[in-house]
Specification:
235 residues; 0% strand; globular
């Protein structure tokens, strides 16, 4: 999927290509992972909105939270259509995602924005890598759910404005972003290692798996560097 063919896509994200359909277990696993990620995003944006400095910012965050919940509902409906129990398909992924968020609690408004843009951006790239090997219907659904709710530009504008007002902020936020990328990449590796059907979906099986893993993590790292540049932070 090219950047021009998906207008809602984060421009920092790597592109993907289509391939033969993966095992059904991998698809439902991906849906479960994505559904829980969207549900958590709704709660996180709601909480981050409480730290917003202005009423306009609070309202903007609330709107983005609502959009994330609608994404969750879209995936939940698809799981139900497939005859899968949404709670059961999400359950295997609650521990790794909850652990990631527990280790990366932002201390203020700006750190929350950087986490949403950098941390969630890496996660979205991870899901797009999976979508690249899906058939057109499931791929379109995943990309629809990953469409930017406006948070990317919102974060970039506010972080850049904060750095312009106080350049010393940049160093702190750059260190925070580096911590986020390390945690996010570690989370992605754990999720793949602990869920074989999802691993087969993302990186195949057999001798090629390690090479595909390395390639995918390199693409995630490259996209992270582009996001850091967009924020005005040193990588």
């Amino acid at each position: 999927m090219s950047e021009t063919s998906d207008p809602g896509r984060d421009p920092a994200a790597p592109a993907g290509t289509g391939a033969p359909a993966p095992p059904a277990g991998g698809i439902t696993g991906l849906y479960g992972l994505l559904a829980y990620a969207e549900l958590v995003a709704f709660y996180r944006l709601s909480d981050d909105g409480k730290l917003a400095p202005t009423l306009a910012d609070k309202a903007a965050m609330a709107g983005m939270a609502v959009a994330e919940f609608s994404h969750f509902e879209r995936i939940r409906a698809e799981l139900e259509r497939l005859g899968a129990d949404p709670g059961q398909t999400m359950a295997p992924f609650t521990a790794p995602l909850d652990a990631f968020h527990a280790r990366t609690v932002p201390s203020d408004w700006l750190e929350g924005l950087v986490k949403a843009y950098v941390g969630d951006g890496i996660a979205a790239d991870f899901y797009r890598a999976a979508a690249a090997v899906l058939e057109p219907g499931p791929r379109a659904l995943v990309l629809e759910v990953l469409a930017d709710t406006g948070h990317a530009q919102f974060a970039v504008e506010h972080v850049r404005a904060a750095i312009e007002a106080d350049p010393k902020v940049a160093g702190r936020l750059a260190l925070w972003a580096r911590r986020l990328v390390g945690e996010a990449l570690g989370q992605a590796q754990r999720v793949i290692a602990d869920h074989p059907p999802l691993a087969d979906l993302l990186v195949g099986d057999g001798e090629s798996q390690l090479g595909e893993m390395v390639r995918m993590l390199a693409e995630l790292t490259d996209a992270h560097a582009r996001r850091m540049s967009a924020l005005g932070l040193a990588n």
